[in-house]
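Bench notes, afternoon.
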Amino acid sequence: MEHGMLIHQFFDYHTRRNPEHQCLLFQGKSFNYAAIAAESIRIANGLRDQGIDRNDRVATLCENCPEVLTIILACSRIGAVAVPLNYRLAAPEVAYILNDAQAKILIAPDMALVDLLTSIRPLADPALPIIAASAQGAENWQHWLSQYQDTAQFTDEIDANAGILQLYTSGTTGRPKGVVSSQRNIIALYISSSTSVSVKAGPGTRDLVCAPNFHIGGVGTLLLPVLAGASVVLHSSFNPMAVVDDLEKHKIDNMFIVPAMIMAILDYVPNIEQRDFSSLRQLLYGASPISTGLLERALKIFKCDFYQCYGMTETTGTIVSLSPEDHIRALRDQPELLQSCGRPQAGVEVKVVDAQGNTLGIGETGELLIHSEANMLCYYNREQATAETLQDGWIHTGDSALIDEHGYIFLRDRIKDMIVSGGENIYPIEIENILSQHPAIGDVAVIGVPCTKFGETPLACVVLKPEQSLDEAEMIEFCRGQLAGYKIPRQLKIFDVLPRNPSGKLLKKDLRMPFWEGHARGIN
């Protein structure tokens, strides 16, 4: 067993120092550090009483809310593992995760998901205790909580390498897998992150969190400011108007969102130019690259530092970032920098390897591997998958990438998103970056579709801006001279909206599926 730092110890430190300091602001209610600490101890006592032991899984079903934090802290106190469920999935998918995680208890502390809970119940283990805000609970959440004291002596030694969070990957390949992150992983992420960004969270700073807390981008951005003693303005889900209002009203310093959210704010909030974002100092975005056009618009409006973050659930979040200086350079005279996800953060090592595992040189494309203290413990109960992804401490990301002479990492899309056309490798991101600059195009994804002559060929899936039109000839003409002939898509399909998962990642497999029925695809 290894003693080490635990997340509730950091939290308790701030509670002792600044008990009255605002920890969370949620739906107009303010919760100070003392209140959050007290509730987390109550929950820990309740879980103990319920027979929850070290390493047991505690599932939560809710939109973003204060209980996400109090339940994770409670789990930290008793050595249990929090499993936040993705409420955007269909009931059978949520039930699959509940059963896969072997959850010992399900807590549903808000009323927002009553219907989902009703549909999950018959699919879950009938013996599973459910504590919920609604009548669907075997026991009422508030009543259950009120039975327990907010004083406790948890004397158990908790191992720093024990699991604390189990998040399910979006399953871009098959069934979702439970990624187990340890206490040490979260602390490593905190140290690396606070060392690597210029605007540091602390007492007196405010973060706005609107990414879903069942996702590493959401739960990471909730935990990190709190570990630093800062305040978090928490949104139950993403709403562009509410985000803009709170940025102004609460003088937010820092926020993490995805490019699709930035686009929604700029496109749907009226009179966005007149709003006052002078307090915003830093904006972090991730899940996908940003186009030059969107970045220019966003910088004009927000006038703050932009960081692009790259990470995975398996690396407990961001381990590579593109700095504000890089963004400025990109707009000045190096647009290609925006295609880079940046350089490794403090304490992170990266390398690119070929199929045999040999390390490749500068500018050579292979699979990106990552070594850091934040690398996950394992996939829950998936020894084979863990052994494939985590080898000698290195995470095999499944991302194809090259590293240039300055250490910038350029993702070449998921290896499986690569289009192999007539023996040429085509990386969709190159085409998407060009098409995103077309005045009629609001959103774009490029996929490979079957082609008798070349095996596969690029198809542009496009969402048009209001009152705009586009045909194939115009698109081909626009790309000419900017892309090699074989890369230019000859086919165009117009969509109302492109499919994305909750973290904002494009679901290219959903776009590809209808085209590949009855075809064997050489890749994937």
